[in-house]
Design goal:
- The protein is α/β, with parallel strands linked by helices.
- The chain has 18 helices and 13 strands.
- The protein has 2 domains: 263 residues, Rossmann fold (3-Layer(aba) Sandwich), CATH 3.40.50; 77 residues, formyl-coa transferase, domain 3 (2-Layer Sandwich), CATH 3.30.1540.10.
- The strands form 4 sheets. A 6-stranded parallel beta sheet has the order 5-2-1-6-7-8.
- It is elongated.
- 32% of the residues are buried.
Length: 399
Amino acid sequence: MSRLPLEGVKVLDVSTMIAAPFGAVLLGDFGADVIKIEMPGKGDTLRHVGPFLDHEPLRWPGLSRNKKSLTLDLRKKEGMEIFKKLVSKVDIVIENFRPGTLEKWGGGYEELKKINPNLVMIRVSGYGQTGPFREKAGFGTPATAFSGFTYLQGYPDRPPVSPPFSLTDYITGIYVAFAAVTAIYYRDVHPQGEGQMVDIALYESVFRMMEFLIAEYDKLGKIRERSPGLTGHSSPAGTFMTKDGHWVVLVTSTDSTFERLAKAMNRKDLLTNEKFCTNERRLQHHDEMNQMVADWIRSMTREDLLQLLDEYGVPVSPILNIKDIFEHPHYQARENIIEVKHPRLGKIKVPGIVPKFEKTPGTIRHIAPDLGEHNQEILQDMLGLSLEEIQTLEEKNVI
């Protein structure tokens, strides 16, 4: 097997739940050696989040693969001492405690960089390490609301709707991985490169993606209200039902894609109609435009519609549920769902590796660990502790 791109990079994952751990698992997928530090006896809180089968957390295998588990109570003096010894031997620390927590335990960034000046420390919190909200409890769903995203979700005559899964956490996890490799590149490539701290707020991960909202309010004074789909961006666009009762999504984000749609509809006259000839004009007559497309789509079966629009190059997709995804040949061809062995469940399916590298593809080297599975390996091999010393730490509930 070819070398993995992050082979040799050592990571301490001192985080819980989703956002920061997801960033760590992305690094692990591409070869980083990730040690996950968990509370003795309890472990990561994600181990206790559903769904479950026979008391086994089903999310754990997908979010904690390619990690080794070390139990360590950082609140205890001996635990913090071991943590600092590990910090001296790694490249990256990822944490998501409330700002000030690690400092209270004696393990803040200023303290750690004395031990390891080359350390890259990724700090994830709800609202960042600075600002009046820095100490506010931060989870993905409230952070999504704070970002302005939730305000846009839903219909104008109904309450705002939060995303049905931890969207902001996963987006933040991508920023975590991006920040880690960027900081490592700077440290290792630039002549004066050194370690540094990276501050990531959950809400900022989503807010960064809404430049349209900023520009619109800044220059037009408009407060965008809730609406389904891409209202205000392009027309026609939306969710439509076919003749045989299936939902599809169609969007024409450019005038050229609308031109292809008009030809597929056998409505070239729309291209010269003053109300519909440009996206700006179509947005002014969006309801009329969308209704025209909805009526046309309702006259066709899903299979016929998709085949026709694919021939014309119109962006369209069926709306798939998870059963559809499991059975879809494209998902299978891309290996988007793969199967791994599980010590108690036998086998379990998890997401595949993303993105796909041509020369150095990522891989699942080992499944998600049991709590404290690698205590002895890490403490003996990395720190040189004896079995007697490890046993003493266990008796004191440090590990």
